[in-house]
Amino acid sequence: MSKIVVVGANHAGTACVNKILATYGDKNEVVVFDQNSNISFLGCGMALWIGKQISGPEGLFYASKESLEEAGAKVYMNSPVESVDYDKKEVHVLLDGKTKHVESYDKLIFATGSTPILPPIKGAEIVPGNREFKATLENLQFVKLYQNSEEVINKLNANPDIKRVAVVGAGYIGVELAEAFERLGKEVTLVDIVDTCLAGYYDTEFSNLMKKNLEDHGIKLAFGQKVEAIEGNEKVERLITDKETFDVDMVVLAVGFRPNTALGDGKIELFRNGAFLVNKKQETSIKDVYAIGDCATVYDNAVGDTNYIALASNAVRTGLVAALNAGGDGDVVESAGVQGSNGICIYDLKMVSTGLTLEKAKRFGYNAAVTEYTDLQKPEFIEHDNHEVKIKIVYDKDSRVILGAQIASKEDISMGIHLFSLAIQEKVTIEKLALTDIFFLPHFNKPYNYITMAALSAKE
Ligand SMILES: Cc1cc2nc3c(=O)[nH]c(=O)nc-3n(C[C@H](O)[C@H](O)[C@H](O)COP(=O)(O)OP(=O)(O)OC[C@H]3O[C@@H](n4cnc5c(N)ncnc54)[C@H](O)[C@@H]3O)c2cc1C
Ligand SMILES: NC(=O)c1ccc[n+]([C@@H]2O[C@H](COP(=O)([O-])OP(=O)(O)OC[C@H]3O[C@@H](n4cnc5c(N)ncnc54)[C@H](O)[C@@H]3O)[C@@H](O)[C@H]2O)c1
């Protein structure tokens, strides 16, 4: 019997623990420590909950201490792991936040995730030692945990005078929260340091669609502005950028995640952003120590190299790979790599992307070209529920291999992006895509569908 200790039991940890126990339960004792009081909160539901698009948070959890224990794990909640002795193979834990405890391991899996980035903004500080990212200034909010969303909702309910909300960071979380606050009737300002939104995921013409969508709903955009200070007498009163001052009652900071790898203690090799550097088996540079989810790197098929992409989808898949490698008798399972596939739906605008944008592809040194196409989803004779779809495919002019794709519409076009995710993973060329079998039925699409048409239109 071998003992596997898992540190962190959110999306990556839960997937990993369940997989080990389901596949090799009789061979392993699994001990889990998490510093939080809850497991498996779906952050993606935060904006829906805040914006009252769902009635409550109950459905936003899919696992619990009890469910993991039923599967056969020993689970300690509210129990931060404080250090690891890699020579003695021991983790040092504060059980229930009080009692010092040492647990030995044969294999150790880090699933310690990520923490919100706090940029150097005067007046923005986290209460020292606080594990829930509580800011010193009242109504300055970080958004990561269930507790963070609960706090925002409680404050909004208790203080109807919170009318003006600034969201800093127009990435995925910021854009989703801007919509949520606007749905509550708040006056919303969305600030980003770059001059557009969703810059990491879409080229300009696509982010412009989202910009217009936000503006059409009355959200004020303050792009290309650097936040310098957040001021207030106990409570937030002003947000000051290098260009403007906004009088606000609440500020939400959503400028990205940083991997949480302090337990590596300088002994484990790290990626350039501080993530645990892992191979395709999720192994770190120390034998018998694995890392999964937001604390670890991924292999990015679009760049053909190691990368950092913090997504719940990656957390789950890396958790499964580590489980199969750490749990079995020398089994070797390698990750297929990822493409960073992602999607967003704001009001009725749906956008999905995978792989590299044109701008990123050039930055990574590809001789990149694009082919684009805009058309209705279904034939013109379908008079209702038939919207325009815009698609852009990025490919490498030299190898012809597809590097990325972006699709936007009021239609649910989300399933189409999976085709491109697989195409990038399997190195499909733009010419092969043009001849790929794509079915036709007027209820769904056109005989000359926009994927085929975009691929056929590739000129360079
Ligand atoms: C608002 C929001 C919306 C999101 N929406 C999406 C989405 O739509 N799609 C998507 O793919 N991704 C989304 N994400 C990102 C996704 O939530 C993360 O990628 C995912 O949570 C990563 O899972 P993880 O288990 O690796 O890490 P985390 O979720 O960060 O969990 C890490 C766990 O480790 C525990 N831990 C850390 N240090 C210690 C320690 N020393 N001792 C004990 N326990 C420790 C923590 O308590 C935590 O439970 C969203 C994130 C947020 C915040
Ligand atoms: N729908 C989804 O798939 C989804 C939803 C939410 C979150 N997530 C994931 O969670 C992670 C965190 O999300 P996020 O929205 O925090 O990060 P993000 O990387 O999506 O966006 C961060 C944004 O903050 C901006 N920014 C950076 N520094 C800034 C500064 N000093 N001042 C102002 N703006 C600044 C960036 O330009 C960027 O637009 C990401 O990996 C994201 O993909 C995914």
Walkthrough of the structure:
The chain has 460 residues and is of the alpha/beta class. It folds into three domains: 2-115 and 258-327, FAD/NAD(P)-binding domain; 118-253, FAD/NAD(P)-binding domain, CATH 3.50.50.60; 348-457, FAD/NAD-linked reductase, C-terminal dimerisation domain (Enolase-like, domain 1). It has helices at residues 11-24, 46-50, 65-71, 146-158, 172-183, 204-216, 312-327, 358-363, 414-425, 430-434, 450-456; strands spanning 2-7, 28-33, 74-76, 81-85, 90-95, 99-104, 107-110, 114-116, 140-142, 164-168, 187-192, 220-223, 227-231, 238-241, 245-247, 250-253, 257-259, 289-291, 298-300, 305-307, 342-346, 349-355, 368-376, 388-396, 402-409. A hairpin with a 2-residue loop joins strand 21 and strand 22. Helix 1 packs parallel to helix 7 (312-327). The longest helix has 16 residues, at 312-327. The protein is globular, with a radius of gyration of 23 Å. The mean pLDDT is 96. The chain binds flavin-adenine dinucleotide (FAD) and nicotinamide-adenine-dinucleotide. Nicotinamide-adenine-dinucleotide binds at residues 44, 119, 168-174, 191-194, 199-200, 227, 254-257, 310-311, 342-344.
